[in-house]
Each structure stands twice: as C-alpha cells, then as structure tokens.
Model the fold of this input.
Amino acid sequence: MKIFFLIVLLNTFLVAGKVLLPEATVAVVDGTAISVDERDKEVGKLLPKAYFHSSLDEDKLRILQDKALKALIEDTLLLNYAVSKNIAVSESEVDDVMKKLAGIYGSKNILESTYKRLGFTQKQFRKAVRKDEILKKLYKKEFEVNHSEAELKDYYEKNRYKFKEPQKIRVRLIYVRNNPEDPKGKTKAKKRIEEAFEKLKAGDDFADIAAKYSTAMSRIKGGDMGYLHKGRLNKAVEEKAFSMNIGETSDIIEQDIGYFIVKVEDKKKQNQLSFEVIKKGLKKDLKNKEEGRRKAELLQKLMLNSVIIK
Done:
C-alpha cells in the first residue's frame, strides 16, 4: 500500500464525478463495519475508464462489487491484525503523508478541495491515510522479501530451461480476407490472391505486392510481421513458415478465413538467455510470488479465526 493508491482514489472519483455518502453496511469483519460507501468507492478504483460516462449492466456491476468487497474484507482483516501486533502510525507520520500529497496536487488547499468534493471530511481522509500507512508497515514487516544475487543465481541455475528464448522467424505476409457476408467473397478473395501470386512469380517485390493486395494491417509495413515464435500465426501458415528456408516464398495457403502467402525473411534458433539478461525480471517475479504467497497464507489463517458477516 503506497501513497500512489490515495492519488488514484482521488483522481478516479474526480473523473467519475460521484460523491458517495455512507449508507448501509454490506459486511462486518470482527465487529468492524464496511459500508456501501466504502464498497462503492472501491468499485470506482476497479472500474475501467471506459465506463466512467456510461452505465454498467447489473451482472458486471455485481462482479465489481463482489471484487471490491473481497478487497475491503482482506484489508480490514490485515488492519485488525496489524493493530493486534502494535503496528501504529503517529499523527506526525500522517502529517508527512498529507504534506507529500499536497505537494503532488500543488497545494494544501487544492488537496483539501479535492477530497471534500469526494465526500471526505479532513478526519475521514486522514483516517484513510493512516490505514494505508499501517498496511504499508505491515507489508514491510510480514511480507516483504528481497532475494540476494546468490539466491537469484541459484534459482537460475536450477531452472535454466525456463529461460530460453524460443525459435523465431521473421516473416512477411500477404493475407486476403474472405468476407463471409459477401456471397462471392471467397471467389473475389481467391482472384485477388492469385493475381498477387502471379506478380510475385514474375519477380515483383514482396513488400510492394503485400502493400497493394494484402487486407491485413501489416500491409502498411509491406507485410512485415517482425520476429514471431510459434503460436502467433494461423496454424497452417505457421507450420508452412517454420518448415521453409530463409528467402523462400510459399504457395497460396487456403483457409476458411481467407488466403495467405508467406515469405521467410530470417530465422533465429532457440537461445539460452544469460543470467544478466533475466536477472531484473526474475528478481521482480520471485519477489511478487513470495510476497503474494505470504500474504495469502496470513489471510487464510485470519479468515479461519475471524467472524465475517456479509
């Protein structure tokens, strides 16, 4: 939990244009109530921007509400646990965060007007800040992990097979779509691809022909699809392309969706990635997995020993 999430909360509700006041209670966790207001504000954080100015259907809204309530219940469990472990945040620490937020928003007055427009009193907003800071301290104490370089290297050596760059090929593609809404769609597509193929056989440049005849977006780059590994192309096209030599052009490949011609520009063999190349990503991945595991393990224990009413 970081100061960033408070900024997201403020900005989200400014865009959404909603001011929600406390209403009914939707859950109680060991005596701590979670209100409709809290749940709906959490929904706002999860809500895609595309829905800010439109209505959600009931099913999608219910899914978001359930997800939001789950997050609030987990936060409440963790907050109560943190308090039981004497993890606290002083008034001066809250003051420091408020100053940082004021600096980000431009001034204390702008920050104050922002959270008031969202229905927060100063006391309520400071309470939200305190909650986030307590959870941040808990995270650091109970979950945070930083693997040493030796640990990362040991993991790499024991799992080298996971760090291989797959075989790749660079291809150019001509694709003529078969329009299923046109009764003559297949005939038209076949005529177009055959005309393109005849020009290729006559020696015309593949990129020029792709730009003129292909109906795929790659036509703007002369049909260049870049380097691709298996699983990125139509199955029949892929099988043909990976069996071809560099510089070779296929015959017309017919599929239900249309017709293809593929040219192999280059090939790269499977490659073992070095430790230095993957180290940064590996560190982040292992950190996220271990911290997530520790958090999930604690939450499971807390839920087994808590009274949760929804």
